[in-house]
Design goal:
The complex is a heterodimer.
Chain A lengths: L12 H17 L5 H4 L8 H10 L17 H14 L4 H17 L2 H12 L5 E4 L15 E5 L2 E9 L9 E7 L10 E7 L5 E7 L5 E14 L3 E2 L5 H13 L9 H13 L3 H29 L5 H25 L11 H16 L6 H11 L4
Parallel strand pairs in A: 1-4
Antiparallel strand pairs in A: 2-3, 3-7, 4-5, 5-8, 6-7
Helix pairs in contact in A: 1-4, 5-6, 5-7, 7-10, 8-9, 8-10, 8-11, 9-10, 10-11, 10-12
Chain B lengths: L1 H17 L2 H8 L5 H9 L18 H13 L6 H14 L8 E5 L1 E7 L2 E12 L6 E8 L2 E8 L3 E4 L9 E10 L4 E3 L4 H33 L1 E2 L2 E2 L4 H30 L4 H27 L10 H11 L6 H14 L5 H7 L1
Parallel strand pairs in B: 1-4
Antiparallel strand pairs in B: 2-3, 3-7, 4-5, 5-8, 6-7, 9-10
Helix pairs in contact in B: 1-3, 1-4, 4-6, 4-7, 6-7, 6-8, 6-9, 7-8, 8-9, 8-10
The structure holds flavin-adenine dinucleotide.
């Protein structure tokens, strides 16, 4: 009768000790952060903050020691992530490298690639961007047109990537592109480890609806990539990218994107309690506790080496619903014009969240695509 | 783990055999399913929440949740949850467990000492299986302290009532003299009973939602329109995927509820509140989608879907609706030390 595997997550003393350590670190670091700085959290870029986390050993935590990790459990890593997000720490710089590029290198990289890069990621000094989407290839990732041709000593790449978050501040991109036309469309795809300073790679800004610049278009103009930039096996890019997506979709950032706003809302209600406001705070608690339990159990399964793609899609879909409901709910209870300029924290958090909420069910796989995955899990496709 | 599977397997087999749609239909007309009850009793399930050292099964939270979810999945028309909890409370209080189904209530009841023991007098409303139970377990305050009393069936008169799903919810008028051994200090007060009952309903809701989803997925594969199974239409797939998300959340919240009841401890009442509020919210959404997918056939009395959807609509409002528990959670969050929402969330 149960089609999904969400084992009850455990809780350990070690995790709680770590939680206390992270909380006290954040209390000092973020004393002066305003709500408008905290609200973006995993979209907020601060390279020096990432270096501090690296120095604490809080990046690449689960990786082997020889690559700069500390061989921590997935649940310990989870504690650090959720505390950073709940506090609204600016973690975007290293987030992608820690979450998916590092694990991808660990699994598919050569020893030389791992040794050269993983310790730098763990130190909070090396940032990655994701080169998947293109103008004509969004949900339909296999439609990618960027192409790498084999040449003497390596490959030549032409094409363009779009929506590449923080390409302009990253050291590397993991590029997903076509390397052959033979076989079915999800064959002949491969991944490359591209240094952003490679000649012929051009990054142009794309601004979002609020005018903010985080994503970009990245052009590849007959770029030469040496043979040792290939990541994994040529033609296996599809399987590799699916593995990457399991990491991309399963974390606490998939339900905490509106947490600063919830927290600011609860402060307003605490100061001036109303029955409706109290009830709304309680509903957030009920949803967050449940989502967190689901999400921690996905972490438990990742730890066990299982493939929780389906469960991760479920959690991300549910998480985005809550994240997107949040601004709509809080504004029914507190009359405040959303404004980044307003002195009060609630209005600032509301301003950020309202304008960014549409992305919550787009980035990392749209709602419709996630539900397609779930429908397949139900045996309907 | 072996034990978990054994309980689940036994429960599934027994419920499939005895908790039939016919039994559920008959129960709606007031017929108590004796065969089902005997089977459940013989399997030892009534003692599931009593620790092994006290002669029970001492099941872990996952196992307890699994058992109750399954009974709700089959819409078993018996007071299994109530009897399991009543048995646990009696065992904790040191009162001997009587045979048969038990009703459990927190009533407006007075206990007065008499030479033969105690006189119990008062009322309890909307009591599950009040008329058909073998005895009533009632929690009441006596001199400012919670007491628990076991009242035999001839000690209360019942006025029959029903919930939306036609499950018995009877008003009881209690007047009896009971021996000293039938009264003890209660392990829970009225508040403690309320959240435990709410937690059990949450678990049952999760099971009923699992059934509504399974019926809907199966139907989407069987029913053809426009030349193909309706499950091939993307609109249907998306609706079912959305229901599946709600069901996953409910099942997870249900295991939190089971942890609250079985392990008790700090924050147990908050966990129960989370579970009741979250499952209650999911219930309306899942029931709605299930009916949409089923079309008119699911709206007919002969179809088994109603056995779970009507229960969902009844259960979400029993022992406190979402608004009630959300407000409780909100109050706890706002009162949390340090004024942080997050601290409460990681503690629950
Ligand atoms: C803030 C943000 C950051 C991003 N960062 C990155 C990044 O760093 N790197 C990167 O590679 N990409 C990034 N993306 C891109 C993101 O992955 C894509 O937006 C996403 O995959 C959807 O693609 P699309 O926008 O082209 O929409 P489309 O795929 O064109 O979809 C448009 C609409 O059609 C629906 N649709 C499409 N196919 C189906 C179907 N089969 N059935 C039903 N409905 C369907 C979609 O659900 C959506 O509603 C980012 C996006 C955002 C918003």
């Amino acid at each position: 009768m149960t089609r999904f595997d969400f084992p009850a997550p455990s809780r350990s003393e070690a995790e709680e000790a770590l939680r206390a350590e992270v909380r006290s670190f954040l209390a000092t670091e973020l004393t002066n952060a305003r709500a408008i700085d905290r609200a973006p959290s995993w979209s907020g870029f601060d390279a020096s903050f990432s270096r501090k986390l690296g120095a604490r050993g809080w990046i690449g935590m689960t990786w082997p020691r020889r690559y700069g990790g500390r061989e921590a459990s997935f649940l310990e890593r989870y504690v650090v992530l959720e505390e950073l997000l709940a506090a609204g720490a600016p973690v975007a710089a290293h987030w992608i490298a820690d979450r998916q590029s590092g694990p991808l290198l660990l699994r598919y990289g050569t020893e030389a690639q791992r040794e050269a890069i993983l310790p730098r990621i763990a130190a909070g000094e090396c940032f990655f961007c994701i080169g998947m989407s293109e103008p004509d290839s969004g949900s339909d990732l296999a439609a990618t047109r960027t192409r790498a041709r084999p040449v003497e000593g390596g490959w030549r790449v032409s094409g363009a990537k779009l929506w590449t978050t923080y390409a302009h501040k990253s050291h590397y991109m993991i590029l997903f592109c076509r390397t052959s036309d033979e076989g079915e469309r999800n064959k002949g795809l491969s991944q490359f480890l591209v240094e952003m300073t490679t000649p012929g790679v051009t990054v142009r800004p794309v601004c979002d609806i609020s005018g903010a610049h985080h994503f970009n278009e990245v052009h590849f103009d007959d770029v030469f990539l040496p043979a040792d930039t290939l990541l994994g096996t040529p033609g296996q890019g599809w399987a590799q990218v699916m593995n990457e997506l399991a990491f991309e979709r399963s974390g606490p950032e998939r339900f905490l994107s509106s947490f600063t706003l919830m927290d600011e809302f609860s402060k307003v209600v605490r100061a001036e309690p109303t029955s409706g406001g109290t009830e709304a705070v309680g509903r957030f608690v009920a949803h967050l506790v449940t989502l967190r339990r689901l999400s921690r159990s996905v972490a438990t399964r990742l730890q066990a080496g299982a493939d929780p793609t389906l469960e991760a899609a479920l959690v991300k879909d549910l998480g985005a619903l809550l994240e997107q409901d949040t601004p709509e709910i809080v504004r029914r209870h507190v009359a405040a014009e959303p404004s980044a300029e307003a002195p009060d924290d609630f209005a600032q958090a509301l301003a950020w969240t309202i304008q960014n909420a549409p992305a919550f069910s787009l980035r990392g796989g749209t709602r419709e695509i996630l539900r397609g995955i779930i429908a397949r899990g139900l045996g309907l496709r | 783990m072996a034990e978990v599977d054994l309980i689940a397997e036994t429960a599934e087999r027994l419920l499939a055999d005895f908790a039939t749609p016919q039994a559920a239909d008959a129960a709606e007309n007031g017929v108590f399913p004796d065969a089902l009850w005997r089977a459940v009793e013989e399997a030892g399930f009534l003692l599931a929440l009593i620790p092994e050292e006290a002669g029970g099964l001492g099941v872990d939270p996952e196992s307890a949740a699994g058992l109750l979810r399954r009974s709700a999945y089959h819409a078993a028309p018996i007071p299994l949850a109530e009897t399991m909890l009543a048995a646990r409370l009696l065992a904790q209080a040191g009162i001997n467990l009587p045979a048969g189904p038990l009703s459990l209530a927190c009533g407006d009841v007075e206990l007065t000492p008499v030479p033969s023991g105690w006189r119990v007098q008062g009322k309890a409303t909307r009591v599950a299986w009040g008329a058909q139970s073998a005895a009533l377990v009632v929690v009441t305050a006596q001199d400012g302290r919670a007491h628990i009393a076991l009242v035999p069936r001839d000690g209360y008169a019942a006025t029959a009532g029903r919930n939306l799903a036609d499950e018995p919810r009877d008003d009881l008028s209690i007047a009896a003299d009971i021996p000293p051994a039938s009264v003890a200090a209660s392990p829970v007060d009225a508040e403690g009973l309320l959240w435990r009952l709410a937690a059990l309903r949450a678990i049952q809701m999760a099971g009923a939602m699992e059934r509504a989803l399974d019926l809907s997925v199966a139907y989407a594969g069987e029913r053809s329109q426009f030349g193909k199974p309706i499950g091939r239409f993307q609109a249907i797939q998306q609706a079912l995927a959305s229901a599946a998300g709600q069901v996953a959340a409910a099942v997870s919240a249900a295991s939190l509820a089971a942890e609250a009841v079985v392990n008790d401890g700090e924050n147990a009442s908050l966990r129960a509140a989370v579970a009741k509020a979250r499952c209650g919210e999911a219930a309306g959404s899942v029931a709605g989608i299930a009916h949409q997918i089923h079309g008119a056939i699911g709206f007919s009395h002969e179809h088994p879907l109603r056995l779970v959807t009507r229960r969902l609509w009844a259960w979400r409002d029993e022992h406190g609706p979402e608004a009630f528990w959300n407000r409780r959670l909100g109050e706890a969050a706002l009162a949390a030390p340090g004024g942080s929402l997050w601290h409460l969330i990681t503690a629950a």
